[in-house]
Design goal:
This protein is an alpha+beta fold and about 325 residues long. The strands form 3 sheets. It has a 6-stranded mixed β-sheet, with helices on one face. Strands 10-11-12-13-14 form a 5-stranded antiparallel β-sheet, covered by helices on one side.
Length: about 325
């Protein structure tokens, strides 16, 4: 919550350190086994002085985080990197993006990651992690799971790990600053606000015209980012959507993201919309692709359930 308060215009985050107990390798009864899992988050490693971030992305200083973790691990043998958290508070998108999900699968399935599961918390607004969502990504799985809020407890007690993380982080940051003069890297606004240029105004006007067809999408402005977000109905489905202009437009293109939840399954996808003339059609194609993906997931889930039932009958 303090990180979000200090950085209202850019995404923030960090890497969880702690312990995972009762973990077991991937099995067909994966979801049932998750009920026995106990995850203890002791602290998080901040993003570091070389972080690159904006209202729509967050790339931590991984070299700093690795050195910080190695220092802490020497003091607390057995302590592990068990996941991460980040925020969507500047853009308001309520779910993990497709890029987030792909990155999580890449991490948990990496040979260098030595746990059977990875935790990911998403903060959506200034209520922080507890006001957002937390997910479990099992190694080798095709599904990830949201952890029920009533399964999450905050324990207030003496925390020697937190004290050590703070001390080593301060030392590392001091060394980095004195050597490089570095600081957190963010995308700065252009000398001329892009929204005041003819290109920016023309692009916004064209997008405002077609987005008006979707009354559930409302525009919001935060610093140099413009976002439409809300619900869009297409056929019998209602999608949660966000359409975002990046701070460095027109260098980077606007992009759309959409999320759909059905039958206990949640799917999110996103796409860059570089060509302004085709954005309305590409936006609808994104929703159709998401609907098809969801249908495939549901049919696969039904098929898996039937197969399991047949195996039990045998």
């Amino acid at each position: 919550m303090l990180e979000i308060e200090k950085n209202p215009d850019v995404e923030v985050g960090g890497k969880f350190v702690g312990y995972i107990r009762n973990s077991s390798p991937v099995t067909r009864r994966r979801k049932a086994k998750l009920a026995d899992l106990e995850v203890e988050v002791c602290d998080y490693l901040d993003s570091g002085p070389g972080t690159s971030r904006s209202a729509v992305f967050h790339h931590p200083d991984t070299e700093y985080q690795l050195e910080l973790f190695q220092r802490i691990e020497r003091e607390f043998p057995g302590l592990a990197f068990i996941g991460l958290w980040h925020s969507h508070h500047p853009n308001g998108f309520p779910n993990l993006s497709r890029g987030d999900i792909q990155a999580h699968w890449g991490t948990v399935n990496s040979p260098r990651y030595d746990q059977e599961i990875m935790i990911s918390s998403l903060a959506i607004d200034d209520t922080g992690i507890l006001g957002g969502k937390t997910f479990a990504f099992p190694r080798g799985s095709e599904k990830y799971y949201e952890i029920a809020p009533d399964s999450i407890q905050v324990v207030r007690t003496r925390n020697d790990i937190h004290a050590a993380v703070e001390a080593h982080a301060k030392s590392l940051r001091s060394r980095t600053t004195s050597r490089t003069g570095g600081g957190t890297s963010t995308i700065d606004a252009n000398d001329t606000d892009w929204r005041h240029t003819s290109e920016g105004q023309n692009s916004l006007a064209r997008d405002q015209a077609w987005l008006a067809i979707h009354p559930g999408m409302q525009p919001y402005t935060r610093r140099d980012t413009v976002i439409w977000r809300g619900s869009v109905r297409r056929g019998s489905r209602v999608f949660q959507c966000a359409y975002t202009y990046p701070e460095d437009f027109p260098k980077s293109s606007p992009f759309a993201a959409a999320s759909l939840v059905e039958e206990g399954i949640e799917v999110t996808i996103s796409v860059d919309l570089a060509e302004s003339r085709t954005r309305p059609q590409e936006f609808l194609m994104l929703l159709d692709e998401l609907g098809d993906t969801m249908q495939n997931h549901i049919e696969k889930q039904i098929g898996d359930s039937r197969n399991q039932g047949e195996e039990r009958d045998v």
